[in-house]
Amino acid sequence: MKGSEQMNNNIPNVIGTLIQERAESHGDRVFLFFEDQKITWRQIDSTSNQFASGLRDLGIQKGDKVVLMMQNHPDFLYSWFGINKLGAVEVPVNVAFKGDNLWKAFHRLSYGKCLTMESQTNE
C-alpha cells in the first residue's frame, strides 16, 4: 500500500507518507523501543501495511471509523498507522472506560468496527 494514497475529502495521507518515506530512508534505524524490543522504521511500515491489508480484507474501507481500544503497546501503533494508511479514521477510546461510561462512548460513536487487544496483565 502506498503512503501517498488519498484519504476522504482528498486530504493527503500525511502519516502514511511519512512512515513510508522514513522506512525508505532510515529503514534499519530504531523507531521505537518497547520493553526488550527494538522496532525499526521498516518494521513499523511493513507491519502497518499488513494490518491495513487485513482490515481491507475484513471489509473496512476509506472513510470507515474504527474504534481502537488498546493498551500502550506497539500493536496500537501498527493498528493506528494501518487504519490511517487505509484511509479509514481511527477513533481511540480509553481502555479504562467501563460500564456506563463505555456504553455512552460507543453509543455516541455508533461505529460498527472496534479493535481491542487482550490485557497484558494477569488482572
In percent terms, what proportion of residues is strand?
A: 15-25%
How big is the Rg? 15 Å
Instruction: Tell me the helix content.
Output: 40-55%
Number of strands: 5
Question: Can you tell me the overall shape?
Answer: globular
What is the SS-derived class? alpha/beta
The overall pLDDT, averaged over residues, is 79
Q: Termini separation (Å)?
A: 38 Å
Strand order of the largest sheet: 4-3-5
Low-confidence stretches: 1-10, 119-123
How do the SSEs run, as a string of H and E? HEEHEHEHE
Largest sheet: 3 strands, parallel
Number of helices: 4
Index terms:
123 residues, alpha/beta, three-stranded parallel beta sheet, 4 helices, 5 strands, 44% helix, 18% strand, disordered N terminus, disordered C terminus
